[in-house]
Amino acid sequence: MLYISKGTLRRKKGRDHLIVTWRGDEYSLYGNDARLWLSARCDTSLAEAAQLKNLANLGLVETGDTDGPLNIYRLLTNCAACPAPWRCPRWPLRRRERVLWQWIDRAGLHLTLTELVFLLEHDIHPVPELLGEANKHALMEIICPDDRLLEARMEDAFDRDTVVEALLGLLRKKYITLV
Fold first, then answer.
1. How many Å apart are CA 176 and CA 43, to the nearest integer?
2. I want to staple 175 with a disulfide (CB 3.0 to 4.6 A). Which of 126, 134, 167, 170 is the partner?
3. Nearest Cα to 132, choosing from 105, 101, 157, 161?
4. Residue 42 has what DSSP assignment?
């Protein structure tokens, strides 16, 4: 089963003990749960469904069927990308990652992967008129004026896989965390 971890690593206590925060709550993970969560912290991973049951019940992983670009996209649509705490030096970003980072960091609301794909697919740049708390209504009018089928349309978008790869790049470089 394909999965990715959600939440932020707060502390690593010993070899097999982690403290993870997710949506304001702290969770202590031990042994196999800690290893599974760490292995999918910065990218998708594969594991048996029975092994992931406890983490899934806590909401600390998002699970999907099998590996592949479309399934990774579907897995990430159930997560929101949030700026990670500034605790470590940051790696340089590629062009797509930089644009995606600007949207995630400055949009004024948590954008879903579907909305990020829409913005990059339509070459909408993060300009001051669309950024920040005061402009989030204008941004949402551009993204979904009254379209309930946005998620289905973006599944077939030409730039879908490049946006997914850029989002995973931000996750690997610890710019974002998933919730």
1. 12
2. 170
3. 105
4. S
Residues, the chain: 179
Q: What's the pLDDT tens digit per position in 3-55?
A: 999 988 888 777 788 989 888 899 999 999 999 998 888 888 888 988 999 99
pTM: 0.87
- The answer to whether the CB of 84 falls within 8 A of the CB of 8 is yes
User: Partners of 22 in the beta sheet?
Assistant: 25
How far is residue 132 from each of residues 107, 110, 152, measured CA to CA in Å? 5, 11, 27
Of 90, 83, 86, which is closest to residue 179 (Cα–Cα)?
83
Helix intervals (H) in the chain: 31-39, 49-58, 69-76, 95-106, 113-121, 136-143, 150-155, 160-172
